[in-house]
Amino acid sequence: MITGFAKSALIVAADLALLCALPHVIDLRVELDALRAERQAATASSSAPILSPIEASGNASQQPLLARITLPLLSQITRPLLSQITRPLLSQITRPLLSQIHPPLLKPITNTAPSPGNPVLTPIVQAATNDSFLAETRRRAEIDPEATMLWLQNQHTGSERLRGMLEVVALWATQDSEAALLWLESNAQGLARLETLSNGVELWAERNPTAAAEWIDGMANDGSKTTAAKTLAAKWVQTDPDAALAWVTGLANGPIRTEATLALAQSWTQTDPKAASIWALSEAEFNGNYELLSQTILQFSQQAPQDAELFVRDLADNNYASIAVSSFVTGRAQADPIRTAQWLAKLAPEDPIYSAEYANSLMQVWAESDSIAASEWLNEQPAGELRDAAAYGFSESIQAFEPEAAAAWANTIDDPDRRILRLTDSIIQWSRSQPHQALEWVQTAELEPAIRTHLANQIGVD
């Protein structure tokens, strides 16, 4: 059951995102899952977000659920404005706008089995029950798939045509995959060509991946072949890793092999991340493909962090150890930044995989998803190289959203060289959009006279 506060928080979060016309779409289902997990921890606290070192030092209590949901996405809303926005006001503004987007999806949210303390949210979504276009497409495709493709090209455009072509490929490829793909290679164009080729190859790979591989080998070396090779590699490795590896390894060096290799590794890590990482390691050693190793370890660390740690520890003496550990830290941070921060803080300096710079990687990830929690953790760290690296990464991450806070955090770095480097970069970026605000901060912040003069000279305004 979802608490009344959680319901309100979810609705306000969605309204705020729409009100600000953010380019990101909030997946309400994900937010709802988060609300269920945190419903016992939700409070009515009104504490403000922690984005500056001064605010962080206040050791604020846990942020209210509404703030934790919306603030990472809405950092451009000022605190006074946020405190004055109410749900009725937002609803009055956003509901008329929403009604112009997709009316069938905007049926009122109703409460089934209502209870004063635990209402249940049930969004009513009307799905299309009868798609006459796809029905007609299927009917034609069962009789003559090639003629159906020509009919689609002559009668329909855009997304409607693509929808129909995918439907035809799904039927045609189950009967004669090679004929379907030959027709697509010769006739389909643009996005429809790539999408339908991928769909057809995937269906063919389920039935006869070896034949699909031979057909792809004969294609012209272009984007279409890259799409087909990626699709086959990702599908084939799920059922026969050895055969898929042999085929991909045999491809000529170049962009097609590189893309197919990455697609194979990404798919393989879903079922056997350790085996995928070992293979990626061989690719790094023999072909210099360190990006593949990085991406594979990143996914490995998200699925099995303890096994991934053992794997990267075995690489501690290799030249690419820093790539492996950095990818491990980034992957863990994306999945669980708090546990990653705790793990990193416990690493002893004499540990073979220790590096203070991994705190920079941690903060780059954490600040993007929850700048409040990241700033609280950062403020609790003792002075030293680990905190300096973390402060550097945090300042960089929030630069575009909170330039003043970014400069303030940069000013807390103890190492003089790193401090002036980050301060200079922060002020230069800030001054490009807000030169007068940046200059005002430089003139009033606690800075040594020489540094103040240096930073003011970077701005170039009177």
Portion of residues within helices: 55-70%
Order of helices and strands: HHHHHHEEHHHHHHHHHHHHHHHHHHHH
> Mean pLDDT, nearest integer?
76
Number of helices: 26
Number of strands: 2
- Our Rg estimate from Cα atoms comes to 27 Å
Order of strands, widest sheet: 1-2
Strand content: under 5%
- Give the overall shape, derived from the CA principal axes: elongated
Main beta sheet: strand number and arrangement? 2 strands, antiparallel
Q: Structural class, judged by helices and strands?
A: mainly alpha
Give the terminus-to-terminus CA distance.
Answer: 59 Å
Low-confidence stretches: 1-32, 39-50, 59-130
Walk me through this protein's architecture.
The protein is mainly α and 462 residues long. Among the domains are: 4-122, no CATH class; 400-462, no CATH class. It is 69% helix and 1% strand. The protein has helices spanning 4-19, 28-38, 53-56, 65-70, 79-84, 87-98, 132-143, 145-155, 158-187, 190-207, 209-217, 223-236, 241-250, 255-268, 273-287, 290-303, 305-313, 321-335, 337-346, 358-369, 371-380, 385-398, 403-410, 416-433, 435-444, 449-459, and strands at 110-112, 120-122. The protein has a two-stranded antiparallel sheet with strand order 1-2. Strand 1 and strand 2 (120-122) form a beta hairpin. The model is unreliable at 1-32, 39-50 and 59-130 (pLDDT under 50).
